[in-house]
Amino acid sequence: MKRRIPAPDISIWTALCIIILCLAAAAYTYRYMYKATPDYSLSRIITAAQSGDASAFEEMTDGTAISGQLFDAMIQDTDTAEQPSFLLQLAWRPLKTQFTANTQTYLHCRITGDIDTPSFKKTEQDMDNRLRTFGFPIPMKGWHYVSSSFSRRIDDNTAEIDITFHQDLLNKNITGTVIMTRYDKNDWHITGITHADTFLKSLHSAYESELAAYNQPVRDKINRLVTLSRLSSQLVRSNDNKQTFLRLQYTPIIKGNPERIKDIQAAYTLQRSDDNTLLYYADVSIYPDSAETVRTSQFLLNPLIPSQYTLIGYTDLSATTASLSVTAIHFKDGTTWKLANALPET
């Protein structure tokens, strides 16, 4: 009796062929499609930064352009004109050159881990001081990569990707959008930031929110003792129209015993209503003998300061928003209640 050889199971062979074809397609997709995307190039840039490969990171990232964009956005935030004047741009140029160079040095040392040298510490301190000068008291350190979105193609050679970082001082995630530019078939580089001004404003807003929360306990104590009401602001011209003054009136109300208070410090701000651009800031001293009486303070506007020059050109202040808030109370016994100007760094 002959033994019958079982026929091969066609369904098994078919399944194996399908699996092999799928693996081949996946390998092809990874090698020839995904590796040609901006997403893959971004992953290489992030890996380079996290592994200490500064050369690869710098090759695929235009640090000079990015830091220059951020500098220009910070300058724009200090100038109320739509475009900074030529003379102002000329005056800022040496600082911009130094800022971009310091940024490159800082990032290189951070990536390589060479952060214990005196030169790095000086660069970090210079960068932090410069940021505070521009109204961004957020330190250079304490940024950590969290995640990134899928890329969005603008055209065949340009894409955008959202990148989220965690900032330790704020204890918040901050998202910005980078511009990726194709350099060859499989290579994309980070060449800029989309809407750098919007990114900085969101960063500044996050900082102000965190600072307000930090100051809230002291703010509550101050508000229970002193309030400033009926604030009004107006522009006043000299008889010959050569000088313009900003005049504010307000009424301080002190609850309890005003005799124990030595003086009160307050901060006055005037902002453009549509975009919150700061037009004027002044410190105001208030003494308890004038409690619950109308007080008047007046400031001469300087046409050489861009924001004040813009303010001089206003016919009235209907398009602005003013605020006057107590920042400190000094008592005769030496005690002081004071709001912090910056978040404490740990």
Given helix and strand content, the structural type is alpha+beta
- Largest beta-sheet characterization: 5 strands, antiparallel
Report the portion of residues in β strands. 25-35%
Label the overall shape: elongated
Number of strands: 12
The overall pLDDT, averaged over residues, is 86
Give the H and E element order.
HHHHHHEEEEEHEEEEEHEE
Straight-line distance between termini: 89 Å
* Helix residue percentage: 40-55%
The helix tally amounts to: 8
Low-confidence stretches: none
Q: Supply the number of structural domains.
A: 2
**Estimated radius of gyration:** 29 Å
Transmembrane segments: 12-33
Keywords: Membrane, Transmembrane, Transmembrane helix
Summarize the structure.
This protein is of the alpha+beta class and 346 residues long.
What would your notes on this structure say?
The chain has 346 residues and is of the alpha+beta class. It folds into 2 domains: 27-194, no CATH class; 216-338, Immunoglobulin-like. The protein is 40% helix and 30% strand. It is built from 8 helices and 12 strands. The chain has helices at residues 10-33, 38-51, 54-59, 63-78, 86-112, 118-133, 196-225, 306-312; strands spanning 143-148, 152-155, 158-167, 172-184, 187-193, 226-237, 244-254, 261-272, 278-286, 295-300, 320-331, 336-338. Strands 1, 2, 3, 4 and 5 form a 5-stranded antiparallel sheet that branches. Strands 9-8-11-12 form a 4-stranded antiparallel sheet. A 3-stranded antiparallel sheet has the order 6-7-10. A hairpin with a 5-residue loop joins strand 8 and strand 9 (278-286). It is elongated, with a radius of gyration of 29 Å. The model has no long low-confidence stretch (mean pLDDT 86).
